[in-house]
Amino acid sequence: MKPRFNIWLPLLSFLFSTCSTYDVPVTRDNCCILDDRFGSFCPTTCGIADFLNTYQPTVDRDLRILEQILEQISNSSGLTDQLIAQIRQAHMGSPQTQPNVIPGYTQKSREIIDEIIRYENIVVAHENTIQQLTDLLILNNNNIQHLKQKTAQLEAQCQQPCKDTVQIQELTGRDCQDIANKGARQSGLYFIKPLKAKEQFLVYCEMDTLGNGWTVFQRRLDGSEDFNKNWIQYKEGFGHLSPNDQTEFWLGNEKIHLITTQSAIPYALRIELEDWSGQKSYADYAHFKVGTEADKYRLTYAFFSGGEAGDAFEGYDFGDDPSDKFFTSHNGMQFSTPDNDNDKFDGNCAEQDRSGWWMNRCHAAHLNGKYYQGGSYTEKDAGPNGYDNGIIWATWRSRWYSMKKTSMKIIPFSRLSVVTGGQAGGVKEVGDA
Ligand SMILES: [Ca+2]
User: Fold this and answer.
1) Centre of ligand 1 from the C-alpha of residue 300, in Å
2) Averaged pLDDT, 262-284
3) Where does 111-248 show beta strands of DSSP type E?
4) Where does this protein have coiled-coil stretches (predicted)?
5) What CATH number is given to the structural domain containing 401?
6) Is 373 within the bounds of a domain?
7) What is the count of structural domains for the chain?
């Protein structure tokens, strides 16, 4: 930096050399310095010195400020140069790093975008699932609502008192004929109380318009009831009684005994049969009785009194052995069940044939046998033993033919002539009454 006073020295020497020589009034022509601050006269040396002394501090200060500004500019320029150099350097070095950095970030960005798309898809899939589940929930709620309504309806129904839909007739008697004698003409369920019975019990009475009243104690019609039962069940009875005679049952040996032995009045037994072609037949037995339990509910009758089904209770000659008929007769036989063998056979007929019956060795009649759909059956159908175990009436159909429908019913013997004499076509009219 140059010394600041150097520029004033030529100026001072000039002033001293010019202004000191003039004594005349100052004009532009004779005074080089014309300034109002000097007044209207050309300044003297002292005057200029005073002037300079007056303004010098201000000028010096301004100069210093200017010097400072210049210094700042100079410094700023240096800084700018440094920055430019750095930028250049950075610019020169960057081409080497860019190719590696940008592909790396691009790859990273793509991966992030792929990831975002994948998550978006998952979110959309979950939204669909949520929608489906919501629909299902609504559906289930509706179903629950529906079930609640049903439950409420059922509860309301259950509040109502139970109604017995089975109609039981009011008249009673010691058997169905006794009730018919009192005027009953409608078939259905009645209570009867045989003379020696301790209490009344329900039976199905088959009534007709002629005043006949049959007491029915066995019914087969569709195989709905299993007749493979034990001693107690055959004693007490099983199956169901219905007012329209549309159910299978065995009334019970004790009840049959009580009815058939209650007085000296003899009963007639009627067997009714129907095969799978719809053909019907019957067989009647006079003075039918069933004995006490102590005598194993023994079957007795006086004689076969007719019927196109034939007298199977008398036994049947199957052609196997001369003694066939003797050993297949039933009159005088005790009742047997699988758990109570009272037959004339070394083995157990009731167990072999899976039924309860007045077994001999074993039978020509077997109405409590196994129910075979269609009628005909074989030894193979009968099971491992191969015995004839169907619903058999050997004098009407083969022992390998099982009946479609059967019934066993009783009436006082004295009525049998009325029944038989009052019908032209056999059993049919009574059965349909
Ligand atoms: Ca035996």
Assistant:
1) 20
2) 96
3) 168-173, 188-192, 201-207, 213-220, 238-239
4) none
5) 3.90.215.10
6) yes
7) 1
